[in-house]
């Protein structure tokens, strides 16, 4: 497929150009685009209002990305669904469906693996394999929507991978997800998470999108952030916060700070005080996350009283804060857990066979 065009990753403008090269009229491009992104077909043969000759021409020049559902785990606690999808090159990625009163929310991956090395995350343990194409990012949402037979109303790019490390494909994905000829999900219903790649945060701000930026902060000072997040070696904590302030200035969109509470590490009264000082005066929201324990690390979750005390301390300093509702704990809910379990199983199987 390397010499064929990834047609599902083309925006409408590029689709018009491709269709023109094939000798077809411009309106055919919108038809093809809608077949791919509204009706979400997996073959050219399904595009029944196009001529057979045109479909064959596309078949010869292009391919349609279509993820294969390898596994799905359904939480008995809250109905959260964790999907494992196989890619055409044999890699696997995971996505999560969370059901809320306000609608269905999907958390997607942006890369196969991750190079950021955050200490509490299973996604990064085996490093980065590659970034996902726009089509591979979109198709996670499409396949989940098809599986449940319901509309997806909210999307968070917060699964495996660092979205800002796959920046060009991320921008294309946002453009196509919010296009009126596709799913047409509002930018305001899209959240992109980053561990803090400062130049990319500033570059994203320049695009003046209406998406929500979520920063994985997880520490109240530079020393603790260094212990938890290697990215802090390159971008100092105040530099990252300044980039978030810049994002708000450019977009008017409130920034969310994700803060995973690790027992005895970053959950003290002093941490709450330092965090309050660090983000004082910002139009922001703090999302406290009871850390999801993983086998490979010895981090433990803060107890309930400590979490509530941390929340109260922030609120007393005028900061908007919530505690994230835990979902999917019984189904490898944390980023990277299902993929790692699957990979280990495949390795054991292949070793036994050989």
Written description of the protein model:
By secondary structure, the chain is α/β, with parallel strands linked by helices. The protein has helices at 12-21, 27-37, 52-61, 134-148, 167-177, 198-206, 222-228, 237-251, 269-278, 304-316, 337-353; strands at 5-6, 62-63, 68-74, 81-86, 92-100, 103-108, 111-113, 128-131, 154-157, 190-194, 212-216, 255-261, 284-290, 320-323. The strands form three sheets. It has a ten-stranded mixed beta sheet with strand order 3-4-5-6-9-10-11-12-13-14, sandwiched between helices. The two termini are 29 Å apart.
How is the topology of this model organized?
Layout lengths: L4 E2 L5 H10 L5 H11 L14 H10 E2 L4 E7 L6 E6 L5 E9 L2 E6 L2 E3 L14 E4 L2 H15 L5 E4 L9 H11 L12 E5 L3 H9 L5 E5 L5 H7 L8 H15 L3 E7 L7 H10 L5 E7 L13 H13 L3 E4 L13 H17 L1
Parallel strand pairs: 1-2, 6-9, 9-10, 10-11, 11-12, 12-13, 13-14
Antiparallel strand pairs: 3-4, 4-5, 5-6, 7-8
Offer a concise description of the structure:
With 354 residues, the chain is α/β, with parallel strands linked by helices.
**Biggest sheet, strands in spatial order?**
3-4-5-6-9-10-11-12-13-14
Can you tell me the overall shape? Answer: elongated
Percent of residues in helices comes to 25-40%
- Report the sheet-strand fraction: 15-25%
Catalogue the unreliable spans: 347-354
* SSE sequence, one letter per element: EHHHEEEEEEEHEHEHEHHEHEHEH
Characterize the largest beta sheet: strand count, sense, and whether it forms a barrel: 10 strands, mixed
Radius of gyration: 21 Å
Number of strands: 14
What's the helix count? 11
